[in-house]
Amino acid sequence: MEKKTLSLCPICLKRIPATILEEDGKIIIKKTCPEHGEFKDIYWGDAGLYKKFDDYGFIGKVEITNTNVENGCPFDCGLCPIHKSTTILANIDVTNRCNLNCPICFANANKSGKVYEPSFEEIKKMMENLRKEVPPTPAIQFAGGEPTVRSDLPELIRLARDMGFLHVQLATNGIKLKNINYLKKLKEAGLSTIYLQFDGISEKPYLTARGKNLLPIKKKVIENCREINFDSVVLVPTLVRGVNDNEIGGIIRYAAENVDVVRGVNFQPVSFAGRVDERTRLEGRITIPDFIKLVEEQTDGEICEEDFYPVPSVAPISVLVEKLTNDRKPILSSHQHCGASTYVFVDEDGKLIPITRFIDVEGFFEMVKENIDEIGKSKIHDVKVLGEIALKLPSLIDLDKAPKSVNIKKIVDLILGVLKSDYKALAELHYHMLMISCMHFMDAYNFDIKRAERCCIHYATPDNRIIPFCTYNTIYRQEVEEKFSIPLEEWRKMHRMGDDD
User: Fold this and answer.
1) Which keywords does this chain's UniProt record carry (predicted)?
2) Residue 432: pLDDT over 60
3) Following DSSP, what letter does each residue of 450-479 receive, concatenated?
4) For the chain, how long is the longest CA-to-CA vector?
C-alpha cells in the first residue's frame, strides 16, 4: 500500500511531498525537505485497521468560503474553496491567559508576554460568521488559555444560545468550577457541556503534565455538577506514553462510575512541536490503533477493537436526515483516520456493554444507505420508508445481549426521532450511553493535507477566518495571537489588575 500526499517540513513549515506506506504492520509517513532533510513518523499503528477504516471515507462540501485559493492547502485558511467539511464544532479562544502553567500545552498559554483576548463584540462577530455557514455551525466551544478567567464568560454563553447555537461547550481545567455558585451561573446562562481536562485517576499524570496534583479538583467538579444537576461532562485526557497511557482503563471506569454526570471520555494523544528527536517521537507517538488496543487490554476485553468506528461512519445518517427534512444538516465528513469512537452502556452491575454487542451497527448503516435514494420522492413515500425502517429496527437489536436497562421501544423511538431531525431525541439518546472516543490531532511531523482538507473542528478568528483545528495549532496560532494581542503590562493597566489576577 502506498499513497501520495502533501505534508509540512517540521522545521520550516514549507509544504513538501509525502508518502504514506505500510511498513512492519504499521502505516508510516515519509517526507524530505530540500533544506532540512528526511523525516519519518508513524501515521497509524496498525495497517489492518487503517485499511478497514478506509471503507468509511466520506467526502463533504463547503458552500460558504471566506478566503481564495492562492498558495494552496494549508496556507489559504479559511475556509477556502478547497476545504470539504463545514464546521461541526467551532472553537473560539476567548483568552490566552490561564490559571495554570502546564508543561504540556498546545496553546502555549501564558508564554508570550502578550494577552490575546478578543473583545465581546469581536467574539460576537466571530459567532455571526459561523452562523452564516450552510448549514449554520451547530456547536461552539469556548476555549483558551483558560476561558473561565474571563469575567464575561456567562454573557458569552448566553449570547451563543441567543444566536442559535444548539450546543455550547466549555473547555476548562475546572479550577474555577470548584465554586459551585459560579458553576450554577454558567448552567443558568445556557452551558450545554463541560469539556473537562482530566489526565488520570492518580496524581502522577497531573504532576508531570500540569505541574501540580489536580485530581482532587477534578473530583470536586464532578461532585458540584451532581449537586446542581448538571449532567453533561466530557472527560478529556491528554495521552502521553509513560505518563498516563496505563490509566486509560481506569479513566473509563471512573466515567462509568459517574455516568449520571459524565457523558463521555475523549482521549487526545499528545502532539509533538518543535525539533523533536526521531527516536523520542517514534517511541512516544500514540496513534488511534494504539489507543484502541490499550482500551481492550485495560477493560479486560469489555470494550474491544471491533466496537470502534471512524467518525464519518455516521455521515450517511445525516444525509438521510437532510433528505427527509429537506434542510441542510451538519455532516460529520472528517477524514476516516482523524478519530474513532464507540458508545457503551453501563449495566446495573457496572459492566460495560458496547452498543455494537447488541445492535447490528453494520446492518443499521446498510439500511440507512439503502434508503437514502428512496427518500425525497414524495411525503407519502417518505412516511412509508420511515415506517419500513421502524419495522426493521427491532430485528437489529438482540435483547439477550443488551443491558437490563435497555427498553427496545424507547431505543427505536429515539432512533426514529434522530432520523426526523429531533435534536432532543439525539440528546436523549446520548444520555443513555457513555461515549468513548479518541481524536488524534496532527502536528508538523505527521501532517497530512488530505486530513486537513476534511477537518470539521475549526477555530474562528477575529479577522473573519474559520481555520481547521490542526492547521491552526500547527501554523496559524502564533500569527493570529500576535496580530490581535497587546503587551501584558498594557492589558493589566487597561483592566487594573495585578500579578495574581
Assistant:
1) Iron, Iron-sulfur, Metal-binding, S-adenosyl-L-methionine
2) yes
3) HHHTT--EEEE-TTS-EEEHHHIIIIIHHH
4) 67
The residue type of 362 is E
Rounded Cα distance between 494 and 410, Å, is: 55
| Nearest-angstrom CA–CA distance, 362 and 56 | 11
* Alpha-carbon span 487 to 69, nearest angstrom: 33
- Given a contact cutoff of 8 angstroms between Cβ atoms, the answer to whether 55 and 43 are in contact is no
Average pLDDT over residues 352-370: 92
Q: Taking a C-beta distance cutoff of 8 angstroms, is the pair 435, 343 a contact?
A: yes
402's grid cell: 443488551
pLDDT tier for residue 183 given thresholds of 50, 70 and 90:
very high
pLDDT at residue 106, as a whole number: 60
Distance CA 225, CA 233 (A): 8
For the chain, the straight-line distance linking the first and the last C-alpha, in angstroms and rounded, comes to 54
Query: From CA 448, how far away is CA 435, in angstroms rounded?
Result: 27
SS (HEC) of 360-422 = CHHHHHHHHHHHHCCCCCCHHHHHHHHHHHHHHHHHHECCCCCCCCCCHHHHHHHHHHHHCCC
Measured from the Cβ of residue 428, the count of other Cβ atoms closer than 10 Å reads 15
Distance CA 181, CA 467 (A): 35
On the question of pLDDT at 89 being above 80, the answer is: yes
Q: Does residue 38 sit in helix, strand or coil?
A: strand
For residue 382, which phi and psi values (nearest 5 degrees)?
-65, -40
Contact, 268 vs 196, CB < 8 A? no
- Give the pLDDT confidence score for residue 125 in this predicted structure: 98
| Contact (CB, 8 A) for 93 and 469 | no
Q: How much of the chain is in helix, strand and coil states, percent to nearest 5?
A: 40, 20, 40
CA of residue 356 relative to chain centroid, distance: 21
Give the DSSP H/E element, type plus range, for residue 40: strand 37-44
Distance CA 402, CA 360 (A): 12
Q: Label the pairing between strands 114-116 and 139-143.
A: unpaired
Is 36 within 8 Å of 26 (Cβ atoms)?
Answer: no
- 361 residue type, one letter: V
* Cross-strand pairs, 435: 264, 343
Phi–psi pair at 143, nearest 5 degrees:
-135, -170
- Give the three cell numbers for residue 339: 478519530
Q: What CA dihedral angle connects 438, 364, 262 and 249, to 10 degrees?
A: -50
Round to whole Å and give the CA distance between 418 and 368. Answer: 12
Question: Of 180, 83, 163, which Cα lies nearest the Cα of 123?
Answer: 163
Of 256 and 486, more confident:
256
Contacts 24+ apart (CB under 8 A), 19-25: 20/448, 22/47
Region 319-347: mean pLDDT is 91
The arithmetic mean of pLDDT across residues 260-265, rounded, is: 96
pLDDT in tens, 366-425: 999 988 888 877 888 888 888 888 888 888 988 888 887 777 777 777 777 777 666 676
Give φ, ψ of 209 to 5 degrees: -90, -25
